[in-house]
Description:
The complex is a heterodimer of chains A (345) and B (224).
Chain A: H1 3-19, H2 40-64, H3 66-99, E1 106-110, H4 116-127, E2 132-138, H5 140-151, E3 168-173, H6 178-189, E4 194-198, H7 201-243, H8 245-253, H9 258-301, H10 312-344
Antiparallel strand pairs in A: 1-3, 1-4, 2-3
Chain B: E1 2-13, E2 17-28, E3 32-36, H1 43-50, E4 58-63, E5 66-67, H2 76-80, E6 83-86, H3 98-109, H4 113-126, H5 142-154, E7 160-164, H6 172-187, E8 191-195, H7 199-205, E9 208-213, E10 216-221
Parallel strand pairs in B: 3-8, 3-9, 6-7, 7-8
Antiparallel strand pairs in B: 1-2, 1-4, 4-5, 9-10
Helix pairs in contact in B: 3-4, 3-5, 4-5
Amino acid sequence: MTQSDKNSAGKSAAQQKSASQPTVAGQKRKRGANTSKLSLDARYESWLRHHRQVAVDSAERLIRHPVASILTMLAIAIALVLPAMLWLGLGSVRALDYDLDSSARVTVYMESGASAKQVSELADEIRNEQSVGSVKVITADEGLHEFQQALGVNDATSLLDANPLPATLLVTPKEREPGAVDALSRQLGELNGVDEARVDLEWLERLHDIGVLGQRLTLGLAVLFGLGVLLVVGNTIRLAVENRRKEIEVVTLIGATHAFVRRPFLYSGAWYGLGGGVLAVALLTLGRGWLSSPISALAQSYGSDYVMPALGFSGSLLLLICSILLGLLGAWIAVGRHLADIRAR
Amino acid sequence: MAIISFEHVGKRYGGRFEAVADLNFSIERGEMVFLTGHSGAGKSSVLKLLTCLERPSRGKVVVGGRDLNTLRNSQIPFYRRQIGVVFQDHQLLFDRTVFDNVALPLLIQGIPPQDAARRVRAALDKVGLLYREKALPIELSGGEQQRVGIARAVVNKPALLLADEPTGNLDPQLSADIMRLFEDFNRIGTTVLLASHDLALIARLRHRILRLRQGRLIADEEGA
């Protein structure tokens, strides 16, 4: 039980108290077991008790019709799996993107012949720039060494009079947005002692666009399928309201508040959401188990150690919470609409 | 002091049909009053106005000193808890036992279970059905079902008891039994307003009678 729940409980109890002012008798009612007045504590107690009763009762109603309940939950689960998969996929794209961090890196070539002191001074100067995340210095000697390793020769210098490579600074910007990187690159290119600053903008822009597209696609689908969940739950709850129409009419006639009438249906919606969420997590876990070995094999053949992303604990929890909230919301909308309908009769 | 008073109350449906027109009467605390007239005379409208199922188009209905026009929608449930209502078709829930049906108003009000059980048994005892508490309504006769409906209406010890044709579907003997039950509640101080078209029966009972015709009060006969 969260603090806000407690507060709202206290509040609703207080509201009930003030709302119950009009007494038919207009007389002072006796305190005690004979009267219907309850203390705030007792009201809170009974509020909690009713929540427990209704939670259990609505779960039992779902269990009494196991096939119908499972089908509804499965429909919810399927609607949740697709956006969740895309969301996971987006995460792994981001991970790939992170591996390709070098794409956003600005390579600053010093003028050849710069001394080690000049190089480190310039590196410090660049480090102090606000938009710069980190600077890695590759001296001319290190550069040559790398070059030799890459070529697979041991003694390239023997063919050359002197080291032809300039000292290089690898500057990683804080922002990876193409415009900002481009601006940084231009700025660095104009510094004293710098021969040239380079960045592969085209690739960076492409990556950026893919990222944005992926995000929008995921968001769009999540909204669409979330709406699907609302419709599934809403329709199921609508039928439940219809089935219990008589009961709703009777309890309304004898003094049930809207909250009292709504409560069992909200719990049903939450249970459907929870069931659907659990099934979705199960489907995603099974699906991952099924797909991960061929995908890793495929990735390995390309020389990548790509691993299929998993939901993990926090991902599963997030999915469950979203699913429960969608169930609640669907139930709320359906119940609100149909209660208004019933009362109008 | 009057527990119910109608002051120039009118109720129109759909702008034309006038179910109740300029109705004026008041009922004192502790009275037992019959409301009679042909169907369509406005009996049901009067009860609907008293239970806030309808709002008057004109005039005001005052119950227990409170003008019902001033009740906000959110206050209506709390108002309804203070009056007991018995319906013609008793409005029992058939998927619950007799006990649970009678306990419903107490459940709605959040009365602790032990306290509620005691009150439910007391109410069932009064209508003579304590021994059927575990039965389902479907297992009961029509008269017994109506008595369960009455137990549910009085379980909360309301100061005002309303009944809409409570003997509508019962034979004369059972109807007389049911009426005696209402008289018992009236004797311990409950104000009873009972709508009925069973003129022979209510004439015998010698209580005050309000006669309605076409939404108007045509006679107010004091009981003996």
